[in-house]
Amino acid sequence: MPIPSYRSLFVGLEAEIPLLDGSRKRYINLDNAASTPSFEAVQQAVNHFLVYYSSVHRGTGFKSQLSTHVFEQGREIVLRFLGADPATHTCIFGKNTTEAINKLARRFPFTPERNIVLTTGMEHHSNDLPWRSAATVIHVKLEADGRLDEADFDDKLSTYGARLALVAVTGASNVTGFLNPIHRLAEKAHRAGALFLADCAQLAPHRQVNMLPLDDPAHLDFAAISAHKMYAPFGTGALVGRRDIFEQGDPDYRGGGTVEIVTLEDVVWAEPPERDEAGSPNTVGVIALAAAIRQLEAVGMQAVAEHEAELTAYALQKLQKMPAIQVYGDPSPANAAGRLGVIPLRVKGVSHFLAASVLGYEFGIGVRSGCFCAHPYILHLLGLNEAEARHVREQMLAHDRSDMPGLLRASFGLYNTTEEIDALLDALNCIATENYRGQYIQDKASGEYKPLHWQPNFEAYFTL
Question: Among 12, 173, 229, 346, which is least packed by CB within 10 angstroms?
Answer without folding.
Answer: 12
